Protein backbone atom coordinates (compact mmCIF):
# COMPACT_ATOMS: atom_id res chain seq x y z
CA UNK A 1 0.00 0.00 0.00
CA UNK A 2 1.35 3.35 -0.97
CA UNK A 3 0.44 6.68 0.52
CA UNK A 4 -2.50 7.72 -1.75
CA UNK A 5 -4.15 4.37 -1.11
CA UNK A 6 -3.77 4.77 2.65
CA UNK A 7 -5.06 8.33 2.58
CA UNK A 8 -8.08 7.33 0.51
CA UNK A 9 -8.74 4.41 2.84
CA UNK A 10 -8.73 6.67 5.90
CA UNK A 11 -10.92 9.30 4.24
CA UNK A 12 -13.41 6.68 3.05
CA UNK A 13 -13.60 5.19 6.52
CA UNK A 14 -14.19 8.60 8.03
CA UNK A 15 -16.84 9.40 5.41
CA UNK A 16 -18.75 6.18 6.14
CA UNK A 17 -18.63 6.90 9.85
CA UNK A 18 -19.91 10.45 9.37
CA UNK A 19 -22.65 9.32 6.99
CA UNK A 20 -23.84 6.73 9.50
CA UNK A 21 -23.81 9.34 12.27
CA UNK A 22 -25.67 11.66 9.91
CA UNK A 23 -28.50 9.21 9.24
CA UNK A 24 -28.66 8.40 12.93
CA UNK A 25 -28.78 12.09 13.89
CA UNK A 26 -31.52 12.74 11.34
CA UNK A 27 -33.83 10.59 13.42
CA UNK A 28 -33.81 13.00 16.37
CA UNK A 29 -35.38 16.43 16.29
CA UNK A 30 -32.60 18.08 18.25
CA UNK A 31 -29.69 16.85 16.18
CA UNK A 32 -31.40 16.59 12.80
CA UNK A 33 -30.18 19.81 11.25
CA UNK A 34 -26.57 19.33 12.29
CA UNK A 35 -26.77 15.71 11.18
CA UNK A 36 -27.90 16.76 7.73
CA UNK A 37 -24.93 19.11 7.47
CA UNK A 38 -22.64 16.40 8.78
CA UNK A 39 -23.84 14.06 6.03
CA UNK A 40 -23.32 16.80 3.43
CA UNK A 41 -19.81 17.33 4.77
CA UNK A 42 -19.12 13.59 4.60
CA UNK A 43 -20.20 13.59 0.96
CA UNK A 44 -17.85 16.44 0.07
CA UNK A 45 -15.10 14.69 2.00
CA UNK A 46 -15.60 11.56 -0.06
CA UNK A 47 -15.20 13.58 -3.27
CA UNK A 48 -11.99 15.12 -1.97
CA UNK A 49 -10.77 11.65 -1.05
CA UNK A 50 -11.47 10.25 -4.48
CA UNK A 51 -9.95 13.15 -6.41
CA UNK A 52 -6.83 13.28 -4.24
CA UNK A 53 -6.39 9.55 -4.73
CA UNK A 54 -6.39 9.90 -8.51
CA UNK A 55 -4.17 12.99 -8.32
CA UNK A 56 -1.67 10.97 -6.29
CA UNK A 57 -1.74 7.92 -8.55
CA UNK A 58 -2.73 8.13 -12.21
CA UNK A 59 -3.26 11.87 -12.31
CA UNK A 60 -6.33 13.63 -13.73
CA UNK A 61 -6.23 14.91 -17.30
CA UNK A 62 -7.19 18.51 -18.04
CA UNK A 63 -9.96 17.22 -20.25
CA UNK A 64 -11.41 15.27 -17.33
CA UNK A 65 -11.28 18.33 -15.11
CA UNK A 66 -13.25 20.31 -17.67
CA UNK A 67 -16.02 17.73 -17.83
CA UNK A 68 -16.05 17.33 -14.08
CA UNK A 69 -16.49 21.07 -13.63
CA UNK A 70 -19.19 21.35 -16.29
CA UNK A 71 -21.22 18.49 -14.82
CA UNK A 72 -20.81 19.66 -11.23
CA UNK A 73 -21.73 23.25 -11.85
CA UNK A 74 -24.84 22.53 -13.90
CA UNK A 75 -26.10 19.79 -11.57
CA UNK A 76 -25.43 21.69 -8.34
CA UNK A 77 -26.86 24.93 -9.68
CA UNK A 78 -30.16 23.41 -10.77
CA UNK A 79 -30.39 21.39 -7.57
CA UNK A 80 -29.77 24.42 -5.36
CA UNK A 81 -32.19 26.64 -7.26
CA UNK A 82 -34.97 24.08 -7.17
CA UNK A 83 -34.38 23.41 -3.48
CA UNK A 84 -34.63 27.12 -2.66
CA UNK A 85 -37.63 27.86 -4.84
CA UNK A 86 -39.94 24.91 -4.36
CA UNK A 87 -42.88 25.48 -2.01
CA UNK A 88 -43.06 23.27 1.07
CA UNK A 89 -46.35 21.78 -0.07
CA UNK A 90 -44.63 20.22 -3.09
CA UNK A 91 -42.05 18.42 -0.99
CA UNK A 92 -43.07 14.84 -1.92
CA UNK A 93 -42.79 15.45 -5.65
CA UNK A 94 -39.49 17.28 -5.18
CA UNK A 95 -38.00 14.35 -3.31
CA UNK A 96 -39.29 12.09 -6.09
CA UNK A 97 -37.57 14.20 -8.73
CA UNK A 98 -34.24 14.28 -6.89
CA UNK A 99 -34.51 10.58 -6.32
CA UNK A 100 -35.19 9.83 -9.98
CA UNK A 101 -32.09 11.76 -10.97
CA UNK A 102 -29.99 9.73 -8.55
CA UNK A 103 -31.27 6.59 -10.27
CA UNK A 104 -30.49 8.10 -13.67
CA UNK A 105 -26.94 8.77 -12.55
CA UNK A 106 -26.36 5.13 -11.60
CA UNK A 107 -27.93 4.04 -14.86
CA UNK A 108 -25.60 6.27 -16.89
CA UNK A 109 -22.48 5.10 -15.09
CA UNK A 110 -23.31 1.48 -15.80
CA UNK A 111 -24.22 2.31 -19.37
CA UNK A 112 -20.98 4.20 -19.92
CA UNK A 113 -18.88 1.38 -18.53
CA UNK A 114 -20.79 -1.20 -20.56
CA UNK A 115 -20.47 0.60 -23.87
CA UNK A 116 -16.91 1.79 -23.44
CA UNK A 117 -15.02 -0.75 -21.33
CA UNK A 118 -12.27 1.36 -19.82
CA UNK A 119 -8.81 -0.04 -19.57
CA UNK A 120 -5.75 1.32 -17.89
CA UNK A 121 -5.37 2.79 -14.45
CA UNK A 122 -3.88 0.81 -11.66
CA UNK A 123 -6.69 -1.64 -11.00
CA UNK A 124 -6.91 -2.54 -14.69
CA UNK A 125 -10.50 -1.67 -15.34
CA UNK A 126 -11.60 -4.36 -17.75
CA UNK A 127 -15.18 -4.57 -16.74
CA UNK A 128 -16.49 -7.27 -19.00
CA UNK A 129 -13.73 -9.59 -17.88
CA UNK A 130 -15.66 -11.10 -15.09
CA UNK A 131 -19.20 -12.24 -14.60
CA UNK A 132 -19.52 -10.14 -11.47
CA UNK A 133 -19.00 -6.95 -13.34
CA UNK A 134 -21.60 -7.89 -15.90
CA UNK A 135 -24.08 -8.72 -13.17
CA UNK A 136 -23.46 -5.48 -11.33
CA UNK A 137 -23.76 -3.46 -14.54
CA UNK A 138 -27.04 -5.17 -15.34
CA UNK A 139 -28.41 -4.64 -11.84
CA UNK A 140 -27.34 -1.04 -11.87
CA UNK A 141 -29.09 -0.42 -15.20
CA UNK A 142 -32.20 -2.35 -14.21
CA UNK A 143 -32.71 -0.70 -10.81
CA UNK A 144 -31.50 2.68 -12.01
CA UNK A 145 -33.99 2.75 -14.88
CA UNK A 146 -36.91 1.66 -12.69
CA UNK A 147 -35.98 4.29 -10.12
CA UNK A 148 -35.79 7.00 -12.74
CA UNK A 149 -39.01 6.38 -14.65
CA UNK A 150 -40.91 5.37 -11.52
CA UNK A 151 -39.91 8.57 -9.70
CA UNK A 152 -40.74 10.75 -12.68
CA UNK A 153 -44.19 9.16 -12.99
CA UNK A 154 -44.71 9.56 -9.23
CA UNK A 155 -43.77 13.23 -9.47
CA UNK A 156 -46.01 13.82 -12.47
CA UNK A 157 -48.95 12.18 -10.74
CA UNK A 158 -48.47 14.18 -7.54
CA UNK A 159 -48.21 17.37 -9.57
CA UNK A 160 -51.42 16.43 -11.35
CA UNK A 161 -49.72 16.29 -14.74
CA UNK A 162 -50.65 12.65 -15.11
CA UNK A 163 -53.93 11.03 -14.19
CA UNK A 164 -54.51 7.34 -13.65
CA UNK A 165 -55.51 5.82 -17.01
CA UNK A 166 -58.50 3.50 -16.83
CA UNK A 167 -56.81 0.43 -18.24
CA UNK A 168 -54.25 0.49 -15.44
CA UNK A 169 -56.99 -0.35 -12.96
CA UNK A 170 -57.97 -3.52 -14.82
CA UNK A 171 -56.18 -6.82 -14.82
CA UNK A 172 -54.54 -5.86 -18.11
CA UNK A 173 -51.81 -4.02 -16.28
CA UNK A 174 -50.61 -7.18 -14.52
CA UNK A 175 -50.27 -8.83 -17.90
CA UNK A 176 -48.42 -5.83 -19.34
CA UNK A 177 -46.07 -5.60 -16.37
CA UNK A 178 -45.36 -9.32 -16.45
CA UNK A 179 -44.39 -8.95 -20.11
CA UNK A 180 -42.04 -6.09 -19.22
CA UNK A 181 -40.59 -8.03 -16.31
CA UNK A 182 -39.97 -11.14 -18.36
CA UNK A 183 -38.43 -9.09 -21.16
CA UNK A 184 -36.13 -7.39 -18.62
CA UNK A 185 -35.07 -10.77 -17.29
CA UNK A 186 -34.30 -12.03 -20.79
CA UNK A 187 -32.26 -8.91 -21.56
CA UNK A 188 -30.62 -9.20 -18.14
CA UNK A 189 -29.36 -12.73 -18.74
CA UNK A 190 -28.50 -12.02 -22.33
CA UNK A 191 -26.31 -9.18 -21.13
CA UNK A 192 -24.65 -11.33 -18.51
CA UNK A 193 -23.92 -13.86 -21.23
CA UNK A 194 -21.85 -11.19 -22.87
CA UNK A 195 -24.26 -10.02 -25.52
CA UNK A 196 -23.61 -6.31 -25.14
CA UNK A 197 -26.22 -5.21 -27.65
CA UNK A 198 -29.10 -6.34 -25.43
CA UNK A 199 -28.15 -3.51 -23.07
CA UNK A 200 -30.54 -1.20 -24.92
CA UNK A 201 -33.34 -3.70 -24.60
CA UNK A 202 -32.66 -3.79 -20.85
CA UNK A 203 -32.72 -0.01 -20.60
CA UNK A 204 -36.00 0.23 -22.50
CA UNK A 205 -37.95 -2.55 -20.85
CA UNK A 206 -36.84 -1.72 -17.31
CA UNK A 207 -37.83 1.90 -17.94
CA UNK A 208 -41.23 0.72 -19.15
CA UNK A 209 -41.51 -1.53 -16.10
CA UNK A 210 -40.90 1.46 -13.82
CA UNK A 211 -43.71 3.34 -15.55
CA UNK A 212 -46.05 0.35 -15.65
CA UNK A 213 -45.68 -0.36 -11.96
CA UNK A 214 -46.02 3.23 -10.74
CA UNK A 215 -48.78 4.46 -13.05
CA UNK A 216 -51.66 2.47 -11.51
CA UNK A 217 -50.83 3.52 -7.95
CA UNK A 218 -53.27 5.97 -6.43
CA UNK A 219 -52.30 9.32 -4.97
CA UNK A 220 -52.71 8.26 -1.34
CA UNK A 221 -50.14 5.52 -1.72
CA UNK A 222 -47.62 7.69 -3.55
CA UNK A 223 -45.49 8.54 -0.50
CA UNK A 224 -44.94 4.83 0.12
CA UNK A 225 -43.87 4.41 -3.48
CA UNK A 226 -41.51 7.37 -3.29
CA UNK A 227 -39.98 5.96 -0.14
CA UNK A 228 -39.59 2.57 -1.83
CA UNK A 229 -38.03 4.17 -4.90
CA UNK A 230 -35.71 6.03 -2.56
CA UNK A 231 -34.62 2.68 -1.24
CA UNK A 232 -34.12 1.48 -4.83
CA UNK A 233 -31.85 4.40 -5.65
CA UNK A 234 -29.68 3.28 -2.73
CA UNK A 235 -29.56 -0.21 -4.21
CA UNK A 236 -28.70 1.26 -7.62
CA UNK A 237 -25.87 3.22 -5.99
CA UNK A 238 -24.57 0.08 -4.31
CA UNK A 239 -24.68 -1.76 -7.64
CA UNK A 240 -22.77 1.11 -9.24
CA UNK A 241 -20.29 0.66 -6.39
CA UNK A 242 -19.65 -2.88 -7.57
CA UNK A 243 -19.25 -1.59 -11.11
CA UNK A 244 -16.49 0.88 -10.24
CA UNK A 245 -15.15 -1.18 -7.35
CA UNK A 246 -15.85 1.35 -4.59
CA UNK A 247 -16.52 0.15 -1.07
CA UNK A 248 -17.68 3.56 0.04
CA UNK A 249 -20.39 3.54 -2.63
CA UNK A 250 -21.49 0.07 -1.62
CA UNK A 251 -21.75 0.92 2.07
CA UNK A 252 -23.55 4.21 1.54
CA UNK A 253 -25.89 2.71 -1.06
CA UNK A 254 -26.68 -0.26 1.15
CA UNK A 255 -27.33 2.00 4.15
CA UNK A 256 -29.78 4.16 2.20
CA UNK A 257 -31.39 1.10 0.66
CA UNK A 258 -31.97 -0.53 4.03
CA UNK A 259 -33.03 2.65 5.80
CA UNK A 260 -35.45 3.39 2.95
CA UNK A 261 -37.04 -0.02 3.35
CA UNK A 262 -37.60 0.56 7.07
CA UNK A 263 -39.13 3.95 6.41
CA UNK A 264 -41.40 2.44 3.75
CA UNK A 265 -42.55 -0.14 6.27
CA UNK A 266 -43.28 2.55 8.86
CA UNK A 267 -45.32 4.54 6.34
CA UNK A 268 -47.33 1.49 5.32
CA UNK A 269 -48.18 0.83 8.94
CA UNK A 270 -49.37 4.39 9.43
CA UNK A 271 -51.78 4.03 6.52
CA UNK A 272 -52.88 0.51 7.31
CA UNK A 273 -51.65 -0.72 3.95
CA UNK A 274 -49.34 -3.57 3.19
CA UNK A 275 -46.54 -3.05 0.72
CA UNK A 276 -47.97 -5.79 -1.48
CA UNK A 277 -51.39 -4.16 -1.71
CA UNK A 278 -49.78 -0.82 -2.47
CA UNK A 279 -47.77 -2.25 -5.33
CA UNK A 280 -50.28 -4.65 -6.81
CA UNK A 281 -53.65 -3.62 -5.43
CA UNK A 282 -54.23 -0.62 -7.64
CA UNK A 283 -55.57 2.62 -6.31
CA UNK A 284 -57.66 2.51 -3.17
CA UNK A 285 -60.50 4.51 -4.67
CA UNK A 286 -61.04 1.93 -7.38
CA UNK A 287 -61.66 -0.77 -4.81
CA UNK A 288 -63.75 1.32 -2.48
CA UNK A 289 -66.35 2.43 -4.99
CA UNK A 290 -67.33 -1.19 -5.19
CA UNK A 291 -67.29 -1.97 -1.50
CA UNK A 292 -68.96 1.09 -0.03
CA UNK A 293 -71.13 2.35 -2.83
CA UNK A 294 -73.96 3.13 -0.45
CA UNK A 295 -72.20 6.34 0.44
CA UNK A 296 -75.07 8.80 0.64
CA UNK A 297 -75.08 11.43 3.35
CA UNK A 298 -78.35 11.73 5.22
CA UNK A 299 -77.79 14.06 8.11
CA UNK A 300 -75.51 16.92 7.15
CA UNK A 301 -75.57 20.01 9.33
CA UNK A 302 -74.11 23.08 7.81
CA UNK A 303 -73.35 26.22 9.76
CA UNK A 304 -72.02 29.72 9.26
CA UNK A 305 -68.64 31.07 10.19
CA UNK A 306 -70.35 33.26 12.79
CA UNK A 307 -71.76 30.28 14.67
CA UNK A 308 -68.38 28.65 14.52
CA UNK A 309 -66.76 31.74 16.03
CA UNK A 310 -69.35 31.89 18.83
CA UNK A 311 -68.73 28.26 19.75
CA UNK A 312 -64.98 28.77 19.68
CA UNK A 313 -65.23 31.79 21.93
CA UNK A 314 -67.07 29.77 24.56
CA UNK A 315 -64.62 26.88 24.47
CA UNK A 316 -61.92 25.99 26.96
CA UNK A 317 -60.06 23.49 24.91
CA UNK A 318 -59.74 23.40 21.15
CA UNK A 319 -58.02 20.76 19.04
CA UNK A 320 -57.09 21.54 15.44
CA UNK A 321 -56.85 18.68 12.96
CA UNK A 322 -54.94 19.94 9.93
CA UNK A 323 -54.84 18.04 6.65
CA UNK A 324 -53.45 18.47 3.20
CA UNK A 325 -56.35 20.72 2.17
CA UNK A 326 -55.00 23.27 4.61
CA UNK A 327 -51.62 23.17 2.99
CA UNK A 328 -53.03 23.39 -0.51
CA UNK A 329 -54.93 26.52 0.46
CA UNK A 330 -51.66 27.85 1.96
CA UNK A 331 -53.74 28.64 5.03
CA UNK A 332 -51.33 27.53 7.75
CA UNK A 333 -50.33 31.13 8.48
CA UNK A 334 -53.95 32.27 8.67
CA UNK A 335 -54.67 29.35 10.96
CA UNK A 336 -51.84 30.46 13.20
CA UNK A 337 -53.46 33.89 13.52
CA UNK A 338 -56.75 32.31 14.54
CA UNK A 339 -55.11 30.15 17.17
CA UNK A 340 -53.12 33.12 18.48
CA UNK A 341 -56.36 34.97 19.11
CA UNK A 342 -57.84 31.97 20.89
CA UNK A 343 -54.76 31.57 23.02
CA UNK A 344 -54.83 35.21 24.03
CA UNK A 345 -58.32 34.53 25.30
CA UNK A 346 -57.00 31.76 27.51
CA UNK A 347 -58.25 28.93 25.34
CA UNK A 348 -56.01 25.89 25.20
CA UNK A 349 -55.11 25.04 21.61
CA UNK A 350 -53.48 21.85 20.46
CA UNK A 351 -52.79 20.48 16.98
CA UNK A 352 -53.53 16.81 16.43
CA UNK A 353 -51.15 15.38 13.87
CA UNK A 354 -52.07 12.10 12.26
CA UNK A 355 -48.97 10.10 11.23
CA UNK A 356 -49.82 10.51 7.56
CA UNK A 357 -51.30 14.01 7.65
CA UNK A 358 -50.29 15.93 4.57
CA UNK A 359 -48.86 13.92 1.75
CA UNK A 360 -46.01 12.26 3.58
CA UNK A 361 -45.45 11.30 7.20
CA UNK A 362 -44.12 14.36 8.93
CA UNK A 363 -45.12 16.63 6.07
CA UNK A 364 -47.71 18.45 8.19
CA UNK A 365 -45.18 19.13 10.93
CA UNK A 366 -42.96 20.82 8.39
CA UNK A 367 -45.82 22.93 7.08
CA UNK A 368 -46.94 24.03 10.54
CA UNK A 369 -43.41 24.74 11.62
CA UNK A 370 -43.21 27.01 8.59
CA UNK A 371 -46.09 29.00 10.10
CA UNK A 372 -44.28 29.30 13.46
CA UNK A 373 -46.55 26.94 15.36
CA UNK A 374 -44.73 26.02 18.57
CA UNK A 375 -43.44 22.47 18.44
CA UNK A 376 -44.95 21.64 21.85
CA UNK A 377 -48.46 22.22 20.52
CA UNK A 378 -48.14 19.50 17.91
CA UNK A 379 -49.46 16.31 19.45
CA UNK A 380 -49.14 12.91 17.86
CA UNK A 381 -52.20 10.75 17.42
CA UNK A 382 -51.62 8.30 20.27
CA UNK A 383 -51.02 11.11 22.73
CA UNK A 384 -53.93 13.29 21.69
CA UNK A 385 -56.62 10.62 21.20
CA UNK A 386 -57.49 10.27 24.93
CA UNK A 387 -57.96 14.06 25.08
CA UNK A 388 -60.87 14.26 22.66
CA UNK A 389 -63.69 13.49 25.17
CA UNK A 390 -62.54 16.45 27.28
CA UNK A 391 -62.38 18.77 24.28
CA UNK A 392 -65.00 21.41 23.54
CA UNK A 393 -64.33 22.10 19.90
CA UNK A 394 -62.46 20.24 17.20
CA UNK A 395 -61.63 22.10 14.03
CA UNK A 396 -61.01 19.77 11.08
CA UNK A 397 -59.24 21.63 8.30
CA UNK A 398 -58.81 19.84 5.01
CA UNK A 399 -58.44 16.45 6.66
CA UNK A 400 -60.84 13.68 5.80
CA UNK A 401 -59.87 10.02 5.86
CA UNK A 402 -57.81 10.38 9.02
CA UNK A 403 -60.92 11.40 10.99
CA UNK A 404 -63.27 8.80 9.53
CA UNK A 405 -64.86 6.72 12.32
CA UNK A 406 -65.51 3.98 9.76
CA UNK A 407 -61.96 2.87 10.28
CA UNK A 408 -62.95 1.80 13.80
CA UNK A 409 -66.62 0.82 13.41
CA UNK A 410 -67.16 -0.66 9.98
CA UNK A 411 -65.25 -3.84 9.30
CA UNK A 412 -66.38 -3.84 5.66
CA UNK A 413 -64.77 -0.47 5.04
CA UNK A 414 -61.49 -0.42 3.12
CA UNK A 415 -60.28 1.98 5.78
CA UNK A 416 -61.03 -0.51 8.55
CA UNK A 417 -58.11 -0.90 10.91
CA UNK A 418 -56.38 2.31 9.92
CA UNK A 419 -55.50 4.32 13.01
CA UNK A 420 -57.64 7.46 13.09
CA UNK A 421 -58.15 10.50 15.29
CA UNK A 422 -61.24 10.07 17.48
CA UNK A 423 -62.59 13.56 16.82
CA UNK A 424 -66.23 12.44 17.16
CA UNK A 425 -65.64 12.11 20.91
CA UNK A 426 -65.42 15.86 21.28
CA UNK A 427 -68.44 17.97 22.14
CA UNK A 428 -68.56 19.84 18.85
CA UNK A 429 -66.76 19.16 15.59
CA UNK A 430 -66.46 21.74 12.83
CA UNK A 431 -65.34 20.45 9.47
CA UNK A 432 -64.12 23.18 7.16
CA UNK A 433 -64.37 21.86 3.65
CA UNK A 434 -64.90 23.08 0.13
CA UNK A 435 -67.76 20.69 -0.63
CA UNK A 436 -68.99 17.21 0.04
CA UNK A 437 -66.37 15.52 -2.11
CA UNK A 438 -64.77 12.41 -0.71
CA UNK A 439 -61.26 12.29 0.69
CA UNK A 440 -58.20 10.78 -0.86
CA UNK A 441 -59.46 7.27 -0.49
CA UNK A 442 -62.77 8.18 -2.14
CA UNK A 443 -64.68 6.83 0.82
CA UNK A 444 -67.70 8.40 2.48
CA UNK A 445 -66.89 9.92 5.85
CA UNK A 446 -69.37 8.88 8.56
CA UNK A 447 -68.18 11.73 10.74
CA UNK A 448 -70.05 14.26 8.60
CA UNK A 449 -73.36 12.57 9.41
CA UNK A 450 -72.94 12.70 13.17
CA UNK A 451 -75.16 15.08 15.14
CA UNK A 452 -72.26 16.87 16.83
CA UNK A 453 -70.58 17.61 13.50
CA UNK A 454 -71.22 20.83 11.60
CA UNK A 455 -69.88 21.57 8.17
CA UNK A 456 -68.52 25.00 7.33
CA UNK A 457 -68.33 25.09 3.56
CA UNK A 458 -65.70 27.17 1.84
CA UNK A 459 -62.05 27.50 0.99
CA UNK A 460 -59.97 26.94 4.12
CA UNK A 461 -58.12 30.22 3.85
CA UNK A 462 -61.24 32.27 3.23
CA UNK A 463 -63.12 30.64 6.10
CA UNK A 464 -60.21 31.23 8.45
CA UNK A 465 -59.96 34.86 7.38
CA UNK A 466 -63.69 35.31 8.00
CA UNK A 467 -63.20 33.59 11.32
CA UNK A 468 -60.56 36.11 12.32
CA UNK A 469 -63.01 38.88 11.50
CA UNK A 470 -65.79 37.30 13.52
CA UNK A 471 -63.51 36.67 16.48
CA UNK A 472 -62.42 40.29 16.34
CA UNK A 473 -66.06 41.40 16.44
CA UNK A 474 -66.57 39.21 19.47
CA UNK A 475 -63.62 40.85 21.14
CA UNK A 476 -61.60 37.65 21.30
CA UNK A 477 -57.90 38.19 21.58
CA UNK A 478 -58.13 41.88 22.54
CA UNK A 479 -56.33 42.67 25.70
CA UNK B 1 -10.84 -5.68 -3.59
CA UNK B 2 -12.15 -9.18 -4.04
CA UNK B 3 -15.79 -9.78 -4.82
CA UNK B 4 -16.34 -11.67 -1.59
CA UNK B 5 -15.07 -8.84 0.57
CA UNK B 6 -17.27 -6.42 -1.39
CA UNK B 7 -20.22 -8.67 -0.59
CA UNK B 8 -19.30 -8.44 3.09
CA UNK B 9 -19.24 -4.70 2.76
CA UNK B 10 -22.72 -4.82 1.19
CA UNK B 11 -24.06 -7.04 3.95
CA UNK B 12 -22.65 -4.98 6.79
CA UNK B 13 -23.77 -1.75 5.17
CA UNK B 14 -27.32 -3.06 4.88
CA UNK B 15 -27.36 -4.20 8.50
CA UNK B 16 -26.09 -0.80 9.58
CA UNK B 17 -28.87 0.88 7.60
CA UNK B 18 -31.50 -1.32 9.22
CA UNK B 19 -30.20 -0.52 12.68
CA UNK B 20 -29.66 3.20 12.23
CA UNK B 21 -33.28 4.25 12.08
CA UNK B 22 -35.00 1.98 14.53
CA UNK B 23 -37.40 4.54 15.88
CA UNK B 24 -37.96 7.88 14.26
CA UNK B 25 -40.65 10.32 15.36
CA UNK B 26 -43.17 10.75 12.50
CA UNK B 27 -42.22 14.42 12.47
CA UNK B 28 -38.91 13.53 10.96
CA UNK B 29 -40.01 11.03 8.35
CA UNK B 30 -40.09 13.51 5.50
CA UNK B 31 -36.74 15.16 6.31
CA UNK B 32 -35.15 11.77 6.91
CA UNK B 33 -36.38 10.47 3.59
CA UNK B 34 -35.12 13.58 1.89
CA UNK B 35 -31.74 13.39 3.64
CA UNK B 36 -31.30 9.69 2.87
CA UNK B 37 -32.25 10.49 -0.70
CA UNK B 38 -29.46 13.06 -0.89
CA UNK B 39 -27.00 10.47 0.35
CA UNK B 40 -28.07 8.06 -2.40
CA UNK B 41 -26.58 10.60 -4.78
CA UNK B 42 -23.24 9.17 -3.68
CA UNK B 43 -23.18 7.68 -7.19
CA UNK B 44 -21.46 10.95 -8.02
CA UNK B 45 -18.29 9.12 -6.99
CA UNK B 46 -18.91 6.51 -9.67
CA UNK B 47 -19.51 9.26 -12.22
CA UNK B 48 -16.25 10.94 -11.17
CA UNK B 49 -14.37 7.68 -11.53
CA UNK B 50 -15.81 7.27 -14.99
CA UNK B 51 -14.65 10.74 -16.06
CA UNK B 52 -11.16 10.31 -14.62
CA UNK B 53 -10.74 6.92 -16.28
CA UNK B 54 -12.16 8.02 -19.63
CA UNK B 55 -8.70 8.85 -21.03
CA UNK B 56 -9.85 11.23 -23.70
CA UNK B 57 -12.81 9.13 -24.84
CA UNK B 58 -15.19 12.01 -25.50
CA UNK B 59 -18.52 10.13 -25.54
CA UNK B 60 -17.57 8.53 -22.23
CA UNK B 61 -16.55 11.91 -20.82
CA UNK B 62 -19.95 13.29 -21.80
CA UNK B 63 -21.84 10.36 -20.29
CA UNK B 64 -19.80 10.72 -17.10
CA UNK B 65 -20.40 14.44 -16.97
CA UNK B 66 -24.16 14.10 -17.46
CA UNK B 67 -24.22 11.37 -14.84
CA UNK B 68 -22.27 13.61 -12.46
CA UNK B 69 -24.74 16.41 -13.14
CA UNK B 70 -27.73 14.22 -12.29
CA UNK B 71 -26.04 12.93 -9.13
CA UNK B 72 -25.09 16.39 -7.90
CA UNK B 73 -28.57 17.66 -8.66
CA UNK B 74 -29.77 14.95 -6.29
CA UNK B 75 -27.11 15.60 -3.65
CA UNK B 76 -27.06 19.40 -3.56
CA UNK B 77 -30.82 19.78 -3.99
CA UNK B 78 -31.49 17.03 -1.46
CA UNK B 79 -29.32 18.48 1.29
CA UNK B 80 -30.56 22.03 0.73
CA UNK B 81 -34.18 21.05 0.80
CA UNK B 82 -33.66 18.95 3.92
CA UNK B 83 -31.93 21.84 5.59
CA UNK B 84 -34.83 24.09 4.66
CA UNK B 85 -37.28 21.73 6.31
CA UNK B 86 -35.19 21.25 9.42
CA UNK B 87 -34.54 24.97 9.77
CA UNK B 88 -38.25 25.33 10.46
CA UNK B 89 -38.07 22.94 13.36
CA UNK B 90 -35.09 24.58 14.95
CA UNK B 91 -36.50 28.06 14.59
CA UNK B 92 -39.02 27.86 17.37
CA UNK B 93 -36.90 27.18 20.43
CA UNK B 94 -36.94 31.00 20.53
CA UNK B 95 -38.57 30.75 23.96
CA UNK B 96 -35.34 29.20 25.19
CA UNK B 97 -33.29 32.31 24.64
From TrEMBL, chain B:
It catalyses: NAD(+) + NADPH + H(+)(in) = NADH + NADP(+) + H(+)(out). Pfam families: PNTB_4TM (PF12769). It is found in: Cell inner membrane. One of its GO terms (molecular function) is oxidoreductase activity. GO terms for biological process: NADPH regeneration. The chain crosses the membrane at residues 33-52, 59-81. Keywords: Cell inner membrane, Cell membrane, Membrane, NAD, NADP, Oxidoreductase, Translocase, Transmembrane, Transmembrane helix. Residues 7-91 form the NAD(P) transhydrogenase alpha subunit C-terminal domain. It is a multi-pass membrane protein. Its main location: membrane. InterPro entries: NADP_transhyd_a_C. It is an enzyme of class 7 (translocase). GO terms for cellular component: plasma membrane. Its EC number is 7.1.1.1. The transhydrogenation between NADH and NADP is coupled to respiration and ATP hydrolysis and functions as a proton pump across the membrane. This is proton-translocating NAD(P)(+) transhydrogenase.
Amino acid sequence: MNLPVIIKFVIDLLAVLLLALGIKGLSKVKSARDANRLAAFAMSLSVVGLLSYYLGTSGIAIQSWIWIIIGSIIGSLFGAILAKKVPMTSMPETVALFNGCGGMSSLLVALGVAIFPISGGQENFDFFKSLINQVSISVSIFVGAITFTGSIVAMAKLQGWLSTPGWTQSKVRHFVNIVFAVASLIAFFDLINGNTSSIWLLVIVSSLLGIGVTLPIGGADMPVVISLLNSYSGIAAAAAGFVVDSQLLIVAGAMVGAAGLILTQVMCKGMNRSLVSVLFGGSLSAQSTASSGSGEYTNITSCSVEECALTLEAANKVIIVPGYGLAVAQAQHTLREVTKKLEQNGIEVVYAIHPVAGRMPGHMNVLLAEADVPYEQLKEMDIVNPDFPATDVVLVLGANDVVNPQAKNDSSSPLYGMPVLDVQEARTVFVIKRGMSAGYSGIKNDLFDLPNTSMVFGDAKKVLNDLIGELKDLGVGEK
Amino acid sequence: MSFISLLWVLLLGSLLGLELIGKVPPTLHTPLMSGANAISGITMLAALTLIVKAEGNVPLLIIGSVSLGFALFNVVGGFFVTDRMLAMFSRKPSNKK
